[in-house]
Amino acid sequence: MEVNRKIHKQISKIKLRLYFILLAKFLILTLILSFLVVSAVLIVSKFYPIYITVKGIYYTVIGFLISSFLISLFFIPSDNSCARKADSLGLNERTITALELREVNTSFALLVKEDALEHLSRFNIKKKLLFNISKRYLAAFGILIPLVVVLYIIPNPMSTRALQKHDLNIAKKEEVKKIAKLEKDLKGNSKLDQWKKTELLNKLEDLKKEVKFSKKENDINKALQKSEKKLQVMKNNYTDENLNKVIEALKKNDSTKGIADLLKNGDKEKAKKEINKLSQSLKNMTPTQQKELADALSKLAEEIKNNKELQDALLSAANSMKNLDVSGLDGELSELSNNISKLMEDSEFNSAINELSKQMAQAENDLQNESTSQSQSGGSGEDGGTISGSQGQKAGNNSNSGTASGNNGNGGSGGTAGGSGTDLGQENPNVTQTPNSGNGIGKKQDSEKKIGDYEKIFTSKNLGGDSEKSQITGQKSSSGSSSVTKSNESNSVRGDLVPYNSVIGEYKKSAQNSVENDVIPDNMKDIVKDYFTSLED
Amino acid sequence: METNNIVIDEKSIKEISENIKRVEEEIGKAIIGQKDIVRQVIIGILCGGNILLEGVPGLGKTQLVKTLSKVMELSFSRIQFTPDLMPVDVSGTNIIKRDDSGNSEFEFQKGPIFSNLVLADEINRATPKTQSALLEAMQEGTVTVGRMTYSLPQPFMVLATQNPIEMEGTYPLPEAQLDRFLFKLNVKFPSFEELKNIVNITVTNNTVDLEKVISGETILKMRKITREVPMASSVQEYALKIVMATHPENEASPEIAKKYIRFGASPRAAQAIISTSKIKALMEGRYNVSFDDIKYVAYPALRHRIFLNYDANSDGIKEDDIIAQILDMK
Q: How many CB atoms within 10 Å of residue A300?
C-alpha cells in the first residue's frame, strides 16, 4: 500500500538520524576511553619500558574507533523503536499504531495511517532529534587531550630501554619467523628419514626457544652460533665424504659404473637393487675382473672414515669376492647396499644441515648488520656484542697460543691455551687460573655470571703461525713440573679479548688437522677430539 | 465497514469529534467551569457507563444532568434518595386500575428510573435494599418487577451523587456496587472567577438557551463507532499494567501500592480504562489511543476501585496519590 510505503520512508529517515546520533555517542565515548587508555599507558611507561610512538597512539585511537563503529552496527534501531521515539516527541502513538495496522485496511486503519503520515511529514527530524554533546564529555575531552599531550612531551627516563626492548622484540620475531620457515621447509623435505627430520626439527625448536627467551641481541647471536655448532656436530656424524669415495670407486669399474651413476643421481632404491644383483653379474665376470673389483672394494674400505659398518661391509664383500664365495656374497652385498643407502640418507641429511647452517649464518649476519647500523646511529650495543663478534672473526687466525682468562659463572676458567698448543713454550699446561682470580690479561669486563654465556678469551692475532711470547698469570700448582725462564725482553702481547665461541671453530679445525697428521700422540687424539667437542656444547 | 448496519467511514468518524466538541461548547454555556467533569460525563455517556459524582451540595450536579439531557435530547429524572425510600419508588410498581367496564387489573407504573438520564441524588442515604434496586438497572439496563422484566430506555445512564461531608446515618455503597460505576468524579468547589460567572447567570434574569446537538440515536451510533478506535499493543499493555499494579501482592507494583492498598481494582477497571480512552482519543481529534489518554481516564476509573488500608488513612494517603505513582512507573 502506498501509505504504508510512505510511512516506512518517513520512519527510515528517523532511523538514520537516530543511528547517527547513537554512532556519534559511541564514537565520543570510545575516544574518551582510548584517550584514557593512552594516558594510562603513558604514565606506566614512565616507570616501565614501553615503546610508544605517535603512530602507535594514532593506531590505538583508530582501532578503538573502528571497533566502536562495528559494534554500533548491532544497535541499529528497529522500526518500532524509531516509531516510539517519534511518538514520544509529540506524535501521541500515531506512528506505532500505524505500524501495527500495516496489514489492516479498515476505514479506521486508513484514517490512522493517513493521520500518522501527515504528522510524520510535518515532523522536523533535525529539530526534534537533536544531537547534543553532553557537557561531561566535553569536560572529559578538555582534561584528557592536554593530559595526553603533556605526558607525551615529558621526558621519559625509560625511553632508551623501551627502544632497546622494542628492537630486541623485532629481532626476535624476525628470527623466529626465519626459524619457522626453516622448519616448514624441513617438514616438506620428503627425502629425509622421519627420525632425522625429527632430530633437526628438535634442534630448530630448541633454537626457537632460546631466541624467544633471549634478553639481549647478543643472546640471539649466541643461540644461532650454538645451533650452528650443534648442526656441524651432527653433520660430522653423518658425513657424505664417504659417499663420494664410494661413487668414485664404483665408477672405476665397468660392472659397477651403473651403480655409481644411480648413487650420484640419488636413486637409492634402484642402486640397492643393482648392488644386490651384483652377485649375478659376478658370475659373468672373469676372475681377473672379480679380483679387480674385490681390490677396489678393499681399497675403498681403507679410505672410508668414521663409518666402521660400511668399512666392514666393504671388506666382507671384498673377501667374499676374492674367495669366490658366491653364496655368502648375497648376504654381504645386501649388507653393503644397506650401508650405502644409509650413506645416501646421510647425504640428504647433510644437505639439509648445510642449508640450515647457511640460513642461520645469514640470519646472524643480518642481525649483526642491524646491530651495527643501530650502534652507529646510537642504537643498542649491549655488551659490545657486535664488536666482540667481529673481533672474534679477526682473531685466532694465525697464532696457536693464547691465554685464556676465565671468570666465574660457568666454570670455564680456561687457563689452558687454545689452538694446537705446540708452542706453548714455558707455559705449564697444568697451570690454570682459579675461578676467582680475575687478574689475568684480558680480564673480562662486564662479566655476567650466567651459565651458558661464552666467556671471552684472549687470543693473539696470528693463530697458526709461529708462536709469540705470551704471559700467563696464576697460582703455581703443587703438582706437575714447572720451569721458569727469565727474559730481559719485555712481553708484548698483541691480541684481543673475544668470546671463545668465535675462535673455537678455528682452534678445533687446527686441532683436528693435528690429530689427523699425527702431530698429536695417538693416545691423546681421542682426548683432544672429545675436549673440543665438549667446548662446543 | 459496517458494524450492525452502521457504516463506519471517515465521515462518520470525523463527525464524532465535531459532535463532542459542539456538546461541550453547548454545555459550557450553562455549566461554568468543571470542564473536566463535563468531559468525563460525556465520555461516560458515550461509553454506556454510569457515573458517581462526589461533591458538596450546591456545585451544580443536578444542573449538569439537566443540561446534558437538553443538549443530548434525553429524558431526565431525578431521584432523591432518603432513608425511607423504597425500591418500588425507584423501579415502579403495579397498581390496580379500574377500566371503564369496571374491571380491575394491574398496570405497571414505571418508576423514575425509566429515563435516559437518572440522577440518583445522595445515593448513600438510601438503604441497601433500595440501592440494590438500581444495581440491575445499572448493570443490565432492565428492571424486574414481580415476574415481568422491563427494558430501560437507551441510552441509559445513572448519575449518582454522594455528599462527602454528611456521612452520619448513611449507607456507604458496597464495593460490588461501586465497581459498577464507570467513573467516580470529584466535583470541586469553583474558583472565584467561576463563582462570579455562576452568580451572574443564576441570580439575574438572563437565561441560557441551549440547543439540541445530538440525539439518543446518535449517541448509540457513536458508541458503536468509538469501540472501533485502534489501540497499539504497547498502549494496551500499559493500561493493563496499571490495573495490575493496584494489587499489592503483585511483585511489579510500586511500594506505595504494596503499603497502602488493601484490595486492588477488578477487571472492570481495565475495561473502563480501555473503552473510555478510545473516546478520549476521538475527543482530541485523534484516531488512535495514546498513553496520555490512558493517564487521563485512569484517575476516574480507578479511584473508587482501589480500597485503602488503615495505614493509608492514618498517613493521609488518598487514592489519587497512589494512582499518580502507579502512572509514573515504567
A: 22
